[in-house]
Design brief:
TIM Barrel; globular
């Protein structure tokens, strides 16, 4: 049986992040096709111009959570700890401006997945100290999916975290496509998180399948 950290590493292989504003098709159809393509984890992120709010956002979250439950994909909520509590989501992903992982863990319970965005070694070490299950590190490449994205870092921060001895599961984020997956994995990431590379793909299932294949075959140097 896999340890908790080994299980998280498996879940991070192809981490799909999406809300209604990111989709070419309906969110439900987008998620269904992505699941058919082999995504391993899903994060509901309803942000940006035109994003749903209030009851409409909750209804969409419930719909997408239902798809995830039917297909055995853990359902993570971005930032909104209250929504994660309401839905009994499988976990939450937070940024540096949100509650620390330790406080979130007390609210949600020990079995929930808590991910934290980290941009520096110091932020990563603090998140580990606070009990985060995984780190989202980036943006690795330029991205248009997040208006609040920080400066592009390349793979250097992932490499630095691994050189420092941090063994926590890491997922790379930001501008990742099938053409640039390999350096991210070889830098030390356990997987990739994507928005546009799946949600905007002309053929979503095929795009997800190809990305997962690239992650699995990239290996580490």
């Amino acid at each position: 049986m896999l340890s908790r950290s080994e299980h998280i590493r498996e879940l991070l292989k192809l981490y799909f992040i999406m809300g209604s504003v990111n989709c070419r098709l309906s969110p439900a159809d987008t998620l269904l096709q992505a699941v058919n393509g082999g995504i391993t984890l899903f994060q509901f992120r309803e942000k940006g111009p035109g994003a749903l709010s209030g009851a409409a956002a909750v209804d969409l979250a419930r719909q997408l959570q239902g798809i995830c439950r039917q297909r055995g994909i853990p359902f993570i909520v971005n930032d909104d700890i209250g929504l994660a509590e309401m839905l009994d989501a499988d976990g939450v992903h937070v940024g540096q401006e949100d509650e620390p992982a330790a406080a979130i863990r007390r609210r949600l319970g020990a079995d929930k997945i808590v991910g934290v965005s980290a941009h520096t070694l110091e932020e990563a070490q603090q998140a580990v100290s606070d009990g985060a299950d995984y780190l989202g590190v980036g943006p690795v490449y330029p991205t248009s999916s997040k208006e609040d994205a920080r400066a592009v870092q390349g793979t250097q921060v992932i490499e630095q975290l691994r050189r420092s001895g941090l063994s926590i599961p890491i997922v790379g984020i930001g501008g990742i496509t099938a053409d640039n997956v390999t350096p991210v994995i070889r830098a030390g990431a356990d997987g990739i998180s994507v928005i546009s590379a799946v949600a905007q793909a002309p053929e979503i299932t095929g795009a997800a399948r190809h990305l997962l294949h690239k992650v699995i075959t990239s290996g580490r140097t």
